Amino acid sequence: MMNEENNQQIEPVSSVMKVFAILNALAEKKSLGVTELAQIVMTSKSTVYRFLQTMKMLGFVRQEGEDDRYSLTLKLFEVSSNALEHVDLVSLAEPHMASIGALTKEALHLGIRDGDNIVYIFKIDAQYNLRMQSRIGGRNPLYSTAIGKVLLAERSEEYVRGVLSQTDFTPSTSKTHRSVDSLLVELKDVQKLSYGVDNEEQEEGLRCIAAPIYDRLGNVIAGLSLSFPTLRYTPEKFDEYVVLLQDAAAKISKNLGCSKA
């Protein structure tokens, strides 16, 4: 029984293999027509055409002129670059996060956007008994987190509304934003200050500060945050944490090739 399940899990999916065969063929040639691709992947022209139209809709291929030839866009390059960037991101951020963690004894998180959520891709636990409950791979909403705010702050209003168009603004606490309009007002301040704050919006008694991390093109790709219980808050500590986070985020951004960092 176990062997049957394992065999089913690794059995290749024909349509997926054909899609990748098309991508490989287009990567080797400047452009190809449906007939040529059908011969390469050994399937019908109608099937190849459906694959190509779906790939075109997703932005991975373009159709050239009226001669029914197709070529790759830079979408695959963007996807692979992002994947490599996130691998590099953790290795670049880890020593800075460890240093801040040793100095402050508070929890630190590195997060990226996935849809209308943030995803934690690395963390340093607090050294106190009273600590934030989180895990790598864990998710939280963009609208109620400091990392979410820095990921959105430099985007246009149209972009933010688009990302959150299907989001249900569920209040985790009495301080959670209830609408995109309310969030947009705060995002203007986040952009000016170059840091975001979660003031007990995600969890009662917990504050969080985040600074943006930029890629080589100057786009915000991640947020570096420090979380601490409200009972350990002082204005002096807050200001110190902002400086520490912004300095670390700037150094990480510079190592990622951002010239403005």
What would you say the CATH architecture of the largest domain is?
2-Layer Sandwich
Instruction: State the shape.
Output: elongated
Q: Into how many domains do the coordinates divide?
A: 2
Name given to the CATH homologous superfamily of the largest domain: GAF domain
Helix-strand pattern: HHEHHEEHEEEHHHEEEH
Number of strands: 9
Describe the structure.
Helices cover 48% and strands 20% of the residues. With 261 residues, the protein is of the alpha+beta class. The chain has two domains: 2-73, Arc Repressor Mutant, subunit A; 79-255, GAF domain (Beta-Lactamase). It has a six-stranded antiparallel sheet. α5 runs antiparallel to α9 (235-255). The chain is elongated, with a radius of gyration of 23 Å.
Characteristics of this structure?
Beta-Lactamase, 261 residues, disordered N terminus, alpha+beta, 9 strands, elongated, six-stranded antiparallel beta sheet, Arc Repressor Mutant, subunit A, 2 domains, three-stranded antiparallel beta sheet
Concise structural overview:
The protein is α+β, with helices and mostly antiparallel strands and 261 residues long. The protein is built from nine helices and nine strands.
